[in-house]
Each structure stands twice: as C-alpha cells, then as structure tokens.
C-alpha cells in the first residue's frame, strides 16, 4: 500500500523552481530518505507532502487523498519534526506538548498521560517543567520528536532529525525511529548524514537542484556506483556533496 504518491511534483517560489517535476512513492512501513546538498529542494518537497503549501503543479496523494483537496484529513494523520526549532520559548517542555495536543483536539485527560509517555520515550521526563530556553539543542530536537508523535501519526516526517546531536543522542533518536518503524509507522526524513541514511533508510532519493537523480536502497546505490553515498552523488553529478 502506498502512503505517498507524487507525480510531477513541482514547486516554484516566484521565479525559482525549488522542486522540479519529481515522482515519489513511499510504501506503508517504509523509511524513505531525501538526500542532497543545501538548497536541493528536500524541505520544500516535504512541505508539499505534509500540506504546508500546495504544489505549483503535479499530483500529490497522501493516504489516498489529494493534498490540495483534503489537507486537514491528511494533516491529522501526519507528525512533523521541522528542520528549525519552532517550540514556544515562553512555555515549559510539558506545556509545549499540552498546547500542541489541543490542535488535534485531544481531550485533556488523554493528553496529560500521553505527554508523560512521550517525554519518557525521548528521555526528557526530568525536564518536564523546564523552560524551553534552558534546554540544550539536542534536547530541543528530542522534544520536537515527541511533539511530532502527539497525534500518534501513521506517517512521521522528519527534517534533519539528528542535526547537531552528539553521537549518543543521535543513536538514541535512531533507536526511537526504529521502534516506531517496527510498530508500522511510515517514516520520511531528510538528512545530511550518510551514516544515518545507510543505517535507517530502506530507500533514498538523491536530490540535486530540485530533481531526483536516483532512487534506490542505499546498499544498491553504493553497490552500483561504488563507495559511499557521497561517492554515488559525485559519480552522478561530477560534484562532491558538500554540506
Ligand atoms: N519560503 C521560500 N521562499 C523563497 N525561496 C525559498 C523558500 N524556501 C526555500 N526556498 C529556496 O528553494 C530552494 C530549495 O530550498 P529547500 O529549503 O527546499 O532546500 P533543502 O534541500 O531543504 O536545503 P537544506 O539542506 O539547506 O535544508 C532553495 O534555493 C531555497 O533558497
Ligand atoms: Mg531543508
């Protein structure tokens, strides 16, 4: 079963074509990654998929619904961990989650126990009453992951989930992602870390200037082109992948 089917997805910002006619298919239970240099169009492509903005052209179906027709129904089934921290700095860790739960009309009785569970899941229970300003960068990433899970999403979209994390926290987040995957959650992520892509993605789409230049499993891509995923990018574009 396909969770995401995009045909000819194109997104322009004024005269700039950020995503250029891409086709994407993501199967239920799969972990799919967008890879590519800064400005390749990864965040933009994701933004269309999670109904943050409509495509300029193309047809994008998520859970069998068109993103331009049923954005609210789609959003209810998706969790998003954004690239940039957009936590409310005036609230505590716990309050951030409680307020977010209200957007999904989760009753207070349910949300208070759910929030505790999620804080335990990302190992932030001790920080429940701490203000956002007093969290480390890695803790904020983990809180954003917890927040993305508040509506128990069937599709979890993660934009650079482990950027800036130390190796221990990075492994902890990978561990959480594997756990979610084993429960049947479909994962769509972007990453600059080749190790992350190789470790957790079933398939990756390598993006360059708005286009997808290769889609396959990391193992197959590296077997065909040799070396690492960086070498695959170099062999396809003639340029090193610099981030
Ligand atoms: N809101 C916006 N308005 C105008 N241009 C934008 C906007 N967002 C992104 N862009 C441009 O669209 C292109 C793709 O950006 P996007 O953020 O999708 O890339 P990315 O692959 O996610 O990059 P990164 O790895 O740096 O996160 C870039 O040229 C960027 O400058
Ligand atoms: Mg991005």
Architecture of the largest domain, CATH level 2? 3-Layer(aba) Sandwich
**What is Rg?**
18 Å
CATH-level-4 superfamily name of the largest domain: P-loop containing nucleotide triphosphate hydrolases
Overall geometry comes to globular
Q: Structural class, from secondary structure content?
A: alpha/beta
CA distance, first residue to last residue: 34 Å
SSE topology string = EEEHEEHEHHHEHEHEEHH
Average pLDDT, all residues:
94
Major pleated sheet: 6 strands, mixed
The hetero molecules present are: adenosine-5'-triphosphate, magnesium ion
Q: Indicate the proportion of strand residues.
A: 25-35%
Question: What does the model show?
Answer:
The chain is an alpha/beta fold and 243 residues long. It folds into two domains: 1-77 and 153-243, P-loop containing nucleotide triphosphate hydrolases (Rossmann fold, 3-Layer(aba) Sandwich), CATH 3.40.50.300; 87-152, no CATH class. Helix content is 37%, strand content 26%. The protein has nine helices and ten strands. The strands form two sheets. Strands 6-7-8-3-9-10 form a six-stranded mixed β-sheet, with helices on both faces. Strands 2-1-4-5 form a four-stranded antiparallel β-sheet. Strand 1 and strand 2 form a beta hairpin. The longest helix is centred in the C-terminal third of the chain and has 16 residues, at 167-182. It is globular. The relative contact order is 0.17. Magnesium ion is lined by residues 42-43, 83, 159, 190.
């Amino acid at each position: 079963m396909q969770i995401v089917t995009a045909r000819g997805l194109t997104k322009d910002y004024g005269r700039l074509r950020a995503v250029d006619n891409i086709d994407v298919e993501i199967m239920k239970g799969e972990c799919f990654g967008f890879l590519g240099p800064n400005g390749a169009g990864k965040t933009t492509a994701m933004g269309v998929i999670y109904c943050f903005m409509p495509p300029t052209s193309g047809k994008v179906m998520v859970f069998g619904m068109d993103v331009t027709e049923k954005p609210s129904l789609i959003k209810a089934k998706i969790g998003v961990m954004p690239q940039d921290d957009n936590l409310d700095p005036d609230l505590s860790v716990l309050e951030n989650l409680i307020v977010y739960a209200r957007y999904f009309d989760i009753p207070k009785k349910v949300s208070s126990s759910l929030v505790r569970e999620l804080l335990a899941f990302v190992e932030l229970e001790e920080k429940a009453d701490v203000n956002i300003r007093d969290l480390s960068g890695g803790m904020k990433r983990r809180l954003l992951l917890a927040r993305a899970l508040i509506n128990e999403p069937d599709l979890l979209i993660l934009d650079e989930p482990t950027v800036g994390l130390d190796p221990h926290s990075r492994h902890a987040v990978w561990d959480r992602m594997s756990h979610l995957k084993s429960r049947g959650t479909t994962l769509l992520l972007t990453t600059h870390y080749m190790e992350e892509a190789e470790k957790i993605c079933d398939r990756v789409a390598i993006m360059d200037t708005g286009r997808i230049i290769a889609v396959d499993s990391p193992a197959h891509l590296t077997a065909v082109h040799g070396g690492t995923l960086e070498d695959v990018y170099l062999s396809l574009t003639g340029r090193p992948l610099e981030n």
